[in-house]
Automatic annotation (TrEMBL):
Family that this chain belongs to: Belongs to the major facilitator superfamily. TCR/Tet family.
Record keywords: Membrane, Transmembrane, Transmembrane helix, Transport
Principal place of residence: membrane
UniProt protein name: MFS transporter
The organism of origin for this protein: Paracerasibacillus soli
Subcellular compartments: Cell membrane
Residue ranges of domain Major facilitator superfamily (MFS) profile in the record: 7-382
InterPro entries, sorted: MFS, MFS_dom, MFS_trans_sf, Sugar_transporter_CS, Tet-R_TetA/multi-R_MdtG-like
Superkingdom in the source lineage: Bacteria
The keyword Iron is annotated on this UniProt entry: no
PROSITE patterns linked to this entry: MFS (PS50850), SUGAR_TRANSPORT_1 (PS00216)
Membrane-spanning ranges: 7-30, 42-61, 73-90, 102-120, 132-154, 160-180, 200-221, 241-260, 272-290, 296-314, 335-352, 358-377
Membrane-protein topology: Multi-pass membrane protein
Length: 384
């Protein structure tokens, strides 16, 4: 048990380092875009390239995690991420930047299912929810701290954050190679009768995957347009936007560490997902109604809590029913997240040009569909 705690700590540290690296580059992206005179459509395509690569590779990565082992895929994913950031740092042409983003998408597709499966192997049904809550919190914390450090490094040089992210990922890969041991498979198994892609449509998987897509779509539409929305509608400054996003990330991380395990024990994963969806629907719609500065900040900050509880709850549920297919469900989780991440900003952007509020109305409708699915979602008898 003590060894498993140490392994979990190493995994969480590696995730923190990787997502700290992603956060590092956020403040300097506009500078790089201006330096290379890139249009808005090219920037949008760069974002889509990352999600597209993740979408294509995720199903294959899930199989590789189960076939070749968790540790190998984690290390390969971190090396891909390091190469991606290095390329973006030295890139002087659009083609190089696109290759960088494609490699970044591949790295995300490899790392997340491998880490999730690793955690499932070293935890029990009783301790898994807490561990996955910590996993989500380590990711959120990396995102919180990363932009601040990145802004400081950018004062030295606009490309330094990319090189720093590449070094951090390389260090994380070396740390994983030295300290991690391939875990024994934790097979609290539930019988799987469907095979191949048909497994996606089995009742115990299908609703979970649909809710992953619906919430990813809604969050991506919200995230990608939030800055424009509050700038156009409320004249928020970059500082105001940073306060809202950072505040939401901090509150979300605290909720994942302090509340997530307690809520899953009292409500169960499905119950927590159901109530978090209702909470999110209300707050997404409220964004279009509130007007005072304080209320906007409060709604934004607490809006992220609902999404930050839904994601680890679904991951926890899937890991408990996956049995021998931890890599498969991790890959599908990543794939449906990618589909939402691609479609959300595209459709949201089209609606935003028609009316500032329409993307949020549309996100609310998508989340309502999620609520309806969650209402009819029954806990598998094997887990009761």
């Amino acid at each position: 048990m003590k060894e498993h705690r140490m392994t979990l700590a190493i995994l969480l540290t590696n995730l923190f380092i990787a997502f700290l690296g992603i956060g590092l580059v956020i403040p300097v992206l506009p500078t790089i875009m201006n330096e290379l005179h890139l249009s808005g459509s090219i920037v949008g395509n760069l974002v889509a390239a990352f999600a597209f690569a993740q979408l294509i590779v995720s199903p294959i990565a899930g199989k590789w995690v189960d076939k070749y082992g968790r540790k190998k895929i984690i290390i390969i994913g971190l090396l891909f991420f390091s190469a991606s950031e290095l390329l973006f740092g030295i890139g002087k042409t659009v083609e190089v930047l696109f290759v960088s983003r494609l490699l970044g998408g591949v790295s995300a597709a490899l790392i997340m299912p491998a880490v999730t499966a690793f955690i499932a192997d070293i935890t029990t049904m009783e301790t898994r929810s807490k561990a996955l809550g910590y996993m989500s919190a380590s990711i959120s914390t990396g995102f919180i701290i990363g932009p601040g450090i990145g802004g400081f490094l950018a004062e030295i040089g606009p490309r330094l954050p990319f090189f720093s992210a590449a070094v951090l990922a390389l260090v994380s890969a070396v740390l994983s190679y030295i300290t991690l041991r391939e875990p024994e498979r934790n097979e609290d198994e539930i019988d799987q009768k469907a095979t191949g892609i048909r497994r996606v449509f089995t009742p115990m998987y299908f609703i979970a995957f649909m809710i992953i897509f619906l919430t990813s779509f809604s969050l991506a539409a919200f995230d990608s347009l939030f800055s424009l929305f509050v700038d156009h509608k409320f004249s928020f400054t970059p500082k105001d936007i940073a306060i809202a996003i950072t505040g939401g990330a901090i509150v979300g991380a605290i909720a994942q560490v302090v509340l997530f395990d307690w809520l899953t024990k009292h409500l169960g994963e499905i119950g927590l997902i159901r109530y978090s969806l209702i909470f999110s629907v209300f707050l997404v719609y409220l964004m279009t109604v509130v007007s005072s500065y304080t209320n906007i900040l409060l709604v934004t900050i607490f809006l992220f809590v609902g999404f930050d509880l839904i994601r680890p709850a679904i991951t926890s549920y899937l890991s408990k029913i996956a049995g021998k297919e931890q890599g498969f469900v991790g890959g599908m989780n990543s794939m449906f997240t990618s589909i939402g991440n691609i479609l959300g900003p595209v459709i949201g952007g089209i609606l935003f040009d028609v009316n500032l509020n329409y993307p949020f109305y549309f996100s609310s409708l998508f989340l309502i569909v999620g609520v309806m699915l969650a209402i009819f979602w029954k806990r598998p008898t094997q887990l009761s």
